[in-house]
Amino acid sequence: MEPFERFKKLNTEGNLWIYVLSLGKENLVCDEEVGKKIFERFGFLPKNLLLKSVLYRLRRQGYLQTEKYKGKKAYLTSERGKMELEKMKSFCQELLQKI
């Protein structure tokens, strides 16, 4: 695998939680639309099993809140999740300045 391809994979599916938390920081995201929204906004389609696993862990650890929207399960990023996103943004900005 070429260095760029490895970098791209590790920064998309390898860090899926960032994209999930980012989607839910302002609006509710229905459970069945998370993968589609990631594709539309970020340009890659995560594997369904991996996505479900990430959603479960984020919810269990308190980074996502589960709510009902039109009778369906939906997610919203919790305050704890928003704090983690801010840490990640700072880290990425610092890293890009060093590269």
Kindly summarize this structure in a few lines.
This protein is an alpha+beta fold and 99 residues long. It is built from 5 helices and 3 strands; from the N terminus they run H-H-E-H-H-E-E-H. It has helices at 3-10, 16-23, 34-42, 48-60, 79-98; strands at 29-30, 64-69, 72-77.
Walk me through the structure.
The protein is of the alpha+beta class and 99 residues long. It has a single domain (3-98), classed as Arc Repressor Mutant, subunit A (Orthogonal Bundle). It has helices spanning 3-10, 16-23, 34-42, 48-60, 79-98; strands spanning 29-30, 64-69, 72-77. It is globular, with a radius of gyration of 14 Å.
Secondary structure: number of strands: 3
Please identify, by name, the CATH architecture.
Orthogonal Bundle
Which structural class do the helices and strands define? alpha+beta
Main sheet overview: 3 strands, antiparallel
Assign the CATH superfamily.
Winged helix-like DNA-binding domain superfamily/Winged helix DNA-binding domain
